Amino acid sequence: MGFNTILKLIFAGIILIAISCNYSQVPFGYDVVDVEITSPPDRSEFDEGVPITFSGTATTQSRTSEGTSCTVSRSIYVEAEVTSYSWHSDIDGELGTDSEISIDWLSPGSHVISFIASDNYGSSGIETINIEVIADDVLLITSLTANPNPVTAGEYSTLRANIYYTGREALSYNWITGTGTIPVSNQAEVVWIVPDDTLPGDYEISFTVTDGTLEAFAILTVTVN
Question: From first to last of its 225 residues, what are the pLDDT tens digits of the chain?
């Protein structure tokens, strides 16, 4: 083997060693943020307007390995610090930035709630739950009508109430008039009998509907010819 050949082999070996050393000297590492929602439980249900407390925990740990020369000399474990929290609803958006928050203004509907925590190394973790916010019951009188209106003295007019109600309870109705009679007053549609001697003018008839908790009231004006 010639001298030049030996020099070439030595030079190639130095290059390989340098490449190997340079590669092994590159440090590597990771950090993980573990996130848990502790309250409320997944798939919880809440009435609209009721305060809901959201609580979560987050822990994080970083590990880095450093290389010297051609070998990894040591591994060190560094406890990172959680620096920020965020709660988010897919319906209402941002909810708060503490590990525990309490709110009473979530919109009715099915929410996906996300809890996000980040550390001082820029890593973050996320956990989600589903909750349902149930809308308050609504009881409204959308219209009161009389047919005919005006009505002639001695005749009758059909009174009708249109109701909007989101609850499930049975409704009770009550019509009250100071003039004439309403033979059956506990229905949404009734008959008002106008006496023959009723003077011409406008007459007020009150209507109330209730489910035992909610109540709505309105007044219907009927003209007598």
Answer: 565 554 454 444 444 444 444 433 333 455 689 999 999 999 999 999 999 999 999 998 765 544 444 444 444 555 678 999 999 999 999 999 999 999 999 999 999 999 999 998 889 999 999 999 999 999 999 999 999 999 999 999 999 999 999 999 999 999 999 999 999 999 999 999 999 999 999 999 999 999 999 999 999 999 999
Cβ atoms of 77 and 83 within 8 Å: the answer is no
Q: What angle do CA 176, 178, 179 make, to 5 degrees?
A: 115
Q: Which domains, and CATH codes, for the chain?
A: 29-134 (2.60.40.10), 139-224 (2.60.40.10)
Please, is 147 exposed, middle or buried when counting C-beta atoms within 10 Å of its C-beta (0-12, 13-18, 19+)? Answer: exposed
